[in-house]
Structures are given as C-alpha cells and as structure tokens.
Amino acid sequence: LKDVFAPAHCSDARCSRSSRRPTPTEAAGAVAPPRVSAMLQVAALLGLSGEVRLEVVVKEEAKVLELKEHIAYQLHVPVLFQVLILQALVLSDEEPLAMHHPGEGQVLVVTIMVCFDLAKRCLHAGSEAQKTEVLRALVERGLVGDVRFQMAAAALEDHSKDVRETAVQVLALFGAEDYRGTVTQVASRLESPYDDVRSAAAQALIEVARRGDDQTLASLRPHLDDPSADVREMSMAAFGEIAPIGDEEAIAIALEHVHDRAMDVRWRALEALGKLVTVKGNRRLISTVIECLGMHSHYVRRWAVEVLGKVAERGDKLAIDDVIAYMDHSDEHVRMAAGVALGEIAEKGDMFAIEGLTRFLSHPNPGVRLAAILARRPLLR
Fold first, then answer.
1. Which of 57, 150, 174, 296: CA 20 to 30 A from 361?
2. Is residue 99 included in any domain, yes or no?
3. Enclosing domain of residue 60
C-alpha cells in the first residue's frame, strides 16, 4: 500500500522510478545520438616572415602535439625541432588547441620556430634509440643550417657504436649539400684522444670526402700509423677512396702498409692498391702482392689474388713462377689462393704455367696434387 499511495514527490528511489514518465526516446527504445565534435581551423606560419603557411582543420579536442604532427608531415620539420608560438606564449604539447582558439568561424594562427636545442640535449643525454632518431631527423628537408653538420659530427664521439654509425650515414647525405663544411667537421674528430672516435671519423671520411682532396689527405695521413689498429684500418680504407688514382706517392704509401702488423690493415692496403694502380708491370709491387698469398688471413689472400690481376700482365713468367712456388705450401688455403691467382695472370693454353703445375701432379701430398689439378684445368685448351 505504501508503494501504491506514495506521493509523486517522494524521495524514495523506488518511488521515483515507478512514478517518472519515460522520455519519448526511452519509450521508443532508441539510443541518444553522440555529440558531433566541432572542428577548429588552424594556420601555422613557418618562421617570423611567415612566407610558408600551412592551414589545417583539426578536431575540437586536438592538442598542440597533433598540430605538430601535421606540420612534420606537410612541412618536413620534425616534431622535436618545432616550437609553436602564439603571440608571446610558447605552446606545450599537451595543451588543447581549443583553449587558445578565438571561436567559431575564426582561425587560430601560430608561428612555427625551428629550434635545435631540444635535439641537442637529446643527443647529449638521450637513450641510444632517441639519439639515432634525432640523427635521422636531421636530414629532413625542412631543416637547414650548418648546425646539422655540427650535431652529426659531434655524434661521432658518442659511446654507442650504433649512434656513431648512424652519424656516419647522416654525414654521407650532408656531403653533397656542404662538402667543405661537412668534411672539416668530420676531420677534426681525427684528433680525438679516443680510438673509437678517430675510427668513426675515418669511416665517415670514406662517405663524405672526394677523391683527390689534398686537405683531407693531409689530415688523414698521420693516422695511417695510428697506435690503434682499428684506426689504421679505417684510415687506410679512407686513403684508398680519397687518394688520386695512379698517384705514385699514394701507391708507395699503400704498398708500405701491406706489411703492417695488423692483418686488417694489410688487406685494406691491398684493397687501396687495387683502386689506385693503373699501370702494370711494377716488379716490386708484383712481388709484394704475391708474398701476400702466403699470409694466414683469408681477406689478405683474397685481395692479393684480385690485385695481382691488376698489377701483373697476362703471361708474366716471373709472376707465374713466383705464384706456382706456393702450390706446395703447407696450408691448403694458400695453395688454393695460388691456384686462383694463376687464373688471373696466365692465359688459357699458357704452356709455361701448365708445365709448372704439371710437376706437382706427382707430389706425395694429395692436397697439393688436388690444388695443381684444379689450377691446371682452366688453363688447358
């Protein structure tokens, strides 16, 4: 009875539910339509001159970061390098744009300032992933200025190998834009007290320096004798890319380092010779390259074979005789290298080479016999 005769204004919850009339929407069982989000018009002007203008329409709930992402996509200025200014106010990423919008039918106008400060701080104290991301962003065409070269070159000093290698890749892209500025920034890192920095700088010079650049060669030359084998290796690799082709002095320098105490430097020196030598027949050069066939490094032997074909004439009997002498070497890899080398300097049907190999067919070591057979086969008509 209490429920039946309860007054309409009763505060009892059950009473309220039973006495309230349903709305037309509820009576029809329909769901109320969602609220339509309003759109905001925003214009972003690049720089104080405002010559570049970007107009976008964003949702009412959009934040400043979303506008920055539009700018990054359209104007190629990465988010990390953007500072958005409204009159004298610097907008933070999490601020709603609606907070500053002048109202319906109006346009919010902000100024985009390109700033490298945050990126510099990130390169100094960020994680490895953050640093590589910043470095890759430096090549975006919306960024200009020498500060990019300076930042990328400074990253050659980073403790992370991945960051240093990313810096090398980025510097390679900058070289075409400002050659001398980029090379100068990189070459200055050759004087670092740290081996890995000097090595990274030499590696970067491979990518950015041009052949015949005397100034860069002068900076690089002392590091061919660096205390660090890694630095010597990268310096020799860079030397082979930068030294003038056919230059006798450069060839003599590379030849001297074929006898470096580090095997990696030796094969880099041979690689450099292969790029620099243009005239065949130099006996000292040929003899030195043939000696490398007997070294225990696979890379040294491989490059010795390749370079031999560039420094010795086909049918050079002295060279052929010297190579054949390695056919009974105790190391099977040396024997194989000698056999391949013969193919580089002996013509098909060269009886001098064929007869030289024939005497090894009766060698007591089956490995020597096999090497002689394999080397002899391509020479037979």
1. 296
2. yes
3. 39-114
